[in-house]
Amino acid sequence: MNYCKSKNILIESYAPLTKGQKLKKKNNALNEMVKHYKDKTIAQLLLRWNVQRGNIVLAKSKNNDRISQNFDTLNWKINAADLEILNGFDANYHCTWNPTTQKVRANDW
After folding, report:
1. For a Cys staple, 9 with which of 4, 63, 64, 101, CB 3.0–4.6 Å?
2. What digits encode the pLDDT tens for the residues 42-62?
């Protein structure tokens, strides 16, 4: 991320909830952390974390309530201590190809 920021490259958070995989896995740290934020969900916490990191967040849903919840990530902040914890997580879930392990050939484009 630091390299991208130094070159003014914006990072897109494509499928930031990795199709629900992060939410399906029980994570006590997230369950406890979300209690610090009144009426917020774990999904909102993860989306807000992406927003605070400066990522472009593309969250989609067909559910009107979830769409409203997604927009309700823009008017509050995660505290510094919780940000540090979230920054240390790596669920290593990929919903598309993994650019760190798959070779891309020129004719793949």
Report:
1. 4
2. 899 999 999 999 989 888 889
